[in-house]
Design a protein that fits this description.
Length: 306
């Protein structure tokens, strides 16, 4: 009996103090964000201003910018450029692939078909990330099904010519930049489809009808009505595809060659070389890039499409 009375008093007390309820609900996650997430980023920032003594191999905890100057070396600049270029290429490719499917889901698919396509889009996310990466490694290998299909139709010389291109080529599709590009596009595609589809759902049909009544054809309606109103969804999806590609190291480690990406370089610097300050400084690069990217995305209204 007293337990029910205590619960009744407690619920009444909390009901009369909505701000306290809000603090109790948001307190734990906010503490986690401040201590664990932002705290780890702050620790990285502090370590990036230290440097590694070359003779002793010990970290000297003295404030300096010499570690950041190492990022300006041709090797590290090449790593940044290579990673950002791949992230941008994957983002553009995913946007081109995702838009038609998202448009069909939003405008033409029946309720049953929408459910089916939602499941089809998201079902790869139900499996392990590593399983999907290694599945693509097997598909793109020299003895994989893709090479077998090309050989079956006598198109193996096409793959050989592509692999001979210096920047995107390699010994096989499973050890080349183009192989990484294919895997990245597949893995991050759902993160592009969903925001675009959400943005397209919000485009009023009355605007499309008005455009048609004013004499605009399908191409003009798409260019002047649909694309501008759905563009925040494209930008929202690009936040995921760009940032996830920028920081990933598993795909480059599994499908890449000797040309490092940012994730591989950070792993190598802090693991093999033990150069934690340089690894921390290199980590700050993607952080700065994504902060600038998010500020631009916010001005373009991307957060409204999430």
């Amino acid at each position: 009996m007293w337990e029910a009375e205590l619960l009744n008093r407690l619920s009444t007390y909390l009901y009369q103090r909505p701000k306290l309820i809000l603090a109790l609900l948001l307190g734990p996650p906010m503490v986690y964000m401040l201590v664990v997430y932002l705290g780890s980023l702050f620790a990285l920032l502090i370590n990036s201003f230290f440097y590694l003594e070359e003779f002793t191999g010990l970290v000297v905890r003295q404030f300096t910018l010499r570690t950041y100057l190492q990022l300006l070396s041709p090797t590290n600049l090449g790593i940044f450029g290579r990673t950002a270029g791949m992230a941008m290429a994957v983002t553009i490719a995913d946007a081109i692939i995702a838009f038609p499917l998202a448009y069909y889901i939003a405008r033409f698919a029946s309720s049953r078909m929408k459910t089916f396509l939602y499941i089809a889009v998201t079902i790869p996310l139900w499996s392990s990330y590593l399983v999907r990466v290694y599945a693509w490694k097997l598909i793109l290998a020299k003895e994989g099904i893709l090479s077998w299909v090309f050989s079956l139709f006598g198109l193996q010389p096409v793959i050989d010519r592509i692999l001979a291109i210096p920047v995107i080529g390699g010994s096989s599709l499973s050890l080349s930049a183009i192989g990484m590009f294919i895997a990245f596009c597949y893995i991050w595609l759902p993160y592009m489809i969903v925001p675009i589809q959400t943005a397209l759902e919000r485009v009023p049909k009355s605007l499309l009808e008005a455009s048609s009544d004013l004499g605009a054809n399908a191409a003009q309606t798409f260019r002047n009505v649909i694309l501008p109103l759905s563009f925040p969804g494209v930008v929202a999806g690009s936040i995921f595809t760009f940032s996830l590609t920028l920081g990933d190291f598993i795909v480059p480690q599994s499908l890449g060659n000797s040309r490092f990406f940012i994730g591989q370089a950070v792993y190598s610097y802090q693991g093999t070389a033990g150069n934690i300050p340089l690894a921390a400084a290199m980590t700050m690069g993607p952080v700065v890039i994504m902060v600038a990217y998010l500020l631009i995305a916010r001005k373009l209204g991307a957060f409204d499409a999430l």
